[in-house]
Every structure is written in C-alpha cells, then in structure tokens.
Batch of 4 targets.
Target 1
Amino acid sequence: MERANFDPAKVLNWEIKGIKEPEDEAIFVGVFLYKHGTPRDYDSIKGITMYHNNVKKDIVNEVVKFLKDKFGGEQAEKGERIFLSSSKEIYSPKEIGGLAKQLESKFALKAVISIEFTDITEEERKKSGLADAKLLPIPGKH
C-alpha cells in the first residue's frame, strides 16, 4: 500500500481491519475515516473512528491511546465505536499503509485495507499500483 500511487483528494473513505489469529474467534479492531464524517445518531463526526469485536477492554484502551497520541481528537463512544472527533485526517497511501503496518506490529494483528474512491478514472485506477483483482467498479459508474 505504501508504494501505491493515487490522488489522496479522491479518497472517499478508508478502513483498516486488524484481525487477530485465529480468525474463527472473530477478534478484530477496525480503524476508519469517512471524508464527509462518520454518522453518530443524527450528527456526522469528522475524524478517525475505531470499532472492535471480542477485544478485551485493556487492549481497546491501548489502541485508543495509540490513535489519540498519533492523531489527537476528542474521544466519544457509542456502542463498539470510538470516535476521535476533530482528529488529524489521513488519505495518502503512505500514511494509510504506514498506519496498517503499525497496527499489525504493535497489536499483533493481520491488517486488511479497503479504500473507496470518488470520481477515479480507469487510467488512474491502472496507474494506482493497486492489485487489479481488488479494484472493483462502482455500479453505474463504468
């Protein structure tokens, strides 16, 4: 991902899902950012958001501290989601890929990255350096 080449301004949202082995125990942490904000009740919160499943509270707290130290923001929670309102926002392949690697090494996770683009051309898709098999067209946009 760090060697990918795409226009960060065209990133609509991204997600890093960090999965703990064995996968059948469904232990994971997700970190994501929606450019236009993450829905929370009737509001939209700008900044990085984290979610978790089957993760011990002390590990959740460690991940939140790591993210807050790195990106800042005011912490708010709703269910299994933790919002870092007004945190630093990242969209470049180097930053997203770097964060995924840090989450993998610091918390012993296997990271899977998903990115959704807006108005990306076929030529930009091909030049991005992302795996063709993973580049899915948006219905009605081809």
Target 2
Amino acid sequence: MALRREPTSQSVLAGRLVPRRMAEEAKVERTLVLVKPDGVARGLVGEIVGRLERKGFQVVAARLLRVNADLAARHYSEHLGKPFYDGLIRHISSGPVFAMAVQGRSAIATIRLLVGATNPQAAAPGTIRGDLAIAMTPNLVHASDSPASAERELALYFRSGDYLEYARTDAGFV
C-alpha cells in the first residue's frame, strides 16, 4: 500500500519557498493593547509592557489617557445591549488607561494567549490575567481579538503619524 501525500500549500518568504503555515506565522501584525484603569492604579504598566517586549513584540505607539464616555461607547460598541455593557463602560472610563500599538509576528493571536482568558479565575498560570488579575471586569488588560478589531480599535486611539518604526537589537532572534 503506497502512502498518499497530501499536497502542501506553499508561499514565498524571504525569497524561499516555505510551507504556507510558516509564512502566516511570520506575518507581522499590529494590534491594540490597553492596560485598563485597574492595571494602571496597581502599578502594573511596566510589568505588562515588559511581558510583551520579552516575548519579542514592539511597542510602536503609546499614550496615557482618560477614556471618555464617547470613546468608551465606540470601543465597546459590539457589546451594546449585553448585560455587562454598562460595567465595561464604567470601568474603562474610571481612571487612566495606557494604550499601546504593539506589533510583531502573529501579534494578535499570540498576545491574546499571553493575556489569558477574560475570567482571571479561568486564566492559565503564566498569563497576565492568570498571574495578576483578580476579577472579571477589572481584568487589567484589553487586547484586540481579530485583524478587523485591531484595525478599528487602533484607529480609535492613534493617528497614522503616531506610529514609530525602529529596529530591535534582537530582531534576528524573535
């Protein structure tokens, strides 16, 4: 009995023919990460930024701001009408938020894994929420969940001129 080989889907990456999956994993994405008011108040901005940078991601724009009711409503528009919507709006506008545009390979999915499950009690140890968060709504961080969300959310917090490109000294290793 002959083994049947499935055709492999391939792409060109850095001038080489590689499996499509490798090319997709190497895709650089930009996403929004917010340290919510509870994270700022607890002095965890540095810890959260450090975890992202140690993983190899770049912060290409950042600002500390207070989210007003209008921005909060636009940010959480997909949750309008859900029972937890008012709590989200109250929390995100309750104090300063540290907003970051973060980029790197497969940034959206990988950062969501680093952040952990929305409910800190279900978040795995080693994740930001698993290690540091204590409740469901004040769960320290927000990270965009898809390329479409990242694009929409980044536009709420940053203008095109806000992004700064730079080379990391460890770029060949991450």
Target 3
Amino acid sequence: MAAAADTADTVDQAEIEGGPVIDDLPATVNQIIRRHAMYAAAGGLIPVPLIEVLTSGTIQIRMISQLCDAYGVKFSENAIKASIATLVGSLLPVSSVGYTILSFTRAVPVVGPILGLATIPLLAGAATWAVGRVFAWHFAGGGTLENFDAESAKEDFKREFEEGKRKVSEAVKG
C-alpha cells in the first residue's frame, strides 16, 4: 500500500483480501465514493451557471486521487481528465448539452432556481458516484491510470450513474 498508508482513507490490506466489503469493494473505498458524491451534490447547489460543473470536476479529481492512494496506484491529474470527460460525456445529451441548458435555466426567474435545485445536485452526485465506482472497480482489478480505458468503461459508467441517482436521492431524503 503506497504513500497514503497513514491516512484514514487507505484501504487496509485485510479489506482487499476478504475483510469488510460492500458490493465487492472495500468499505473504505465505498466511503470515499459516497462522501465525494455528497460533496458534488452539495456543489450542485451553487446558484451560478456552470460553476457547479467545475466544482464537480474538481471533486471527482480529488476522489480519484484518494482512490489511487487507497489502492496504491500512482496518481496523475493529467491522466484522468480526459477519462472523466469521456465517461461523463457518454451521458449525452443528458450530461453536456442537457446539463449546460439546465444550468443556464437557473437564470429564469422562479422556475429556473427550483428546477436547478431539484436536478443539478442529483446529476452531479450521481456522475461523481459513477466515476468513483468505475475507477474503483478498475483499481480493484489491478488496473492503473495508465491502462484505464474510458471507452470500454462507458456501459459500466451508465449503469453506475443510474445507481448513483438512486443512492444520492436516498441520502438526500435521509
């Protein structure tokens, strides 16, 4: 286990080799993903168009950094930016075009803020959940950032995005 052995987010070798797991991923990894999905959902509450997109991207990069630490994988911010864009872009038109339009509808009096408040946090949290899960599965299988293939992960990402919407919705409801 690499440099992050002193942090609370480091995956204990026992967790990887049969310790506490949730959905076949170590509990610590699921905690990292869940926490960052909630951060992204909270960032989606920022009422400035497109700022929530930048916030989500930053949160996703930070989450992947922590997942790299947890799995002892070398982190490179440059190596993941294109992969995140490919994964999130696979939700078109929901993510890019729809998300941008939805973001700008916040400027419409009364309806815009309500619509934005109801949807953008959910989408941001779900996308972050899906990004985290796809990378965690890759790292759990011995993968690295260098051999991550975003194109082949798109279907898994879409499935995890749907699950992420459910998980974020449940967390928000309490």
Target 4
Amino acid sequence: MKDAWFHPDRTGIYKGEMKNGLAHGKGTYTTSYKGKKGTYKYFYKGSFVNGLKHGKAVHIIKLPTYLIKFQGSFKNDLSDGYGVLTMIYKGKLEQKYTGEFKKGYRHGKGKLIDYFQKTTKQGRFSRGGFKK
C-alpha cells in the first residue's frame, strides 16, 4: 500500500516553523473535508523540509470507517525508513505492520499482523507485497 497522506489540494492548517513561505522544521498540519460517506480528517505532526514531510513524525488519517496511524520516518513526502502502521476498522484493530518502508511502500524487513484474518507475515516485503 502506497501512502496517500494528504488531501490532494493540500488545503488545511499548518502551524510551525517556515522557510521561504514553506513548512520547514517542526510543525503540525491538519485538514478535513466532507466526502460521500462522511468526514475525512488528516493530522500530521513532525518534521518538514521545503514543504514536504521529511523526518520523524506521527500521521493519522480518520475516514468514516477507518483510522490509519503511521508513526515513523518520512522522506520527500512519503513514508521511508522504519515505522509502525496501524489500521483500525470500525473501532477494531485490523492490521499492524512494524518494519521498513521505502517511497511510501512496506519495503524491507517487517512484520504484518492481520487480526481479522488471524495471520502473521514476517520477513521481506517489496513494494507493499510480502516476499518471505
């Protein structure tokens, strides 16, 4: 799964350090919008470089039936490095991935626990898929 962390038009509220009119340094970004199935909310707290998510951060997406939380490293606006991705569906823990990310994908060594299917995959992931 590649991350789509912000609403595409990047409207919202940014509070934090800036440089040349862009988010740069520590800050928070929040936004929300009404969709067909309810309100979608986005929250990011962490580091930015030249307006892009870059460095350690916490990112939360709240959809009408899902809560998605990523805690870890970003590079050039995408999850990259070590992180923990947690997905909650209708208030119940669905999946938790702990491990490496690259360019927005689960990529490298990691562990994926699927609580709904009662399975665990541990080993190498490539572009989001499990390799063993």
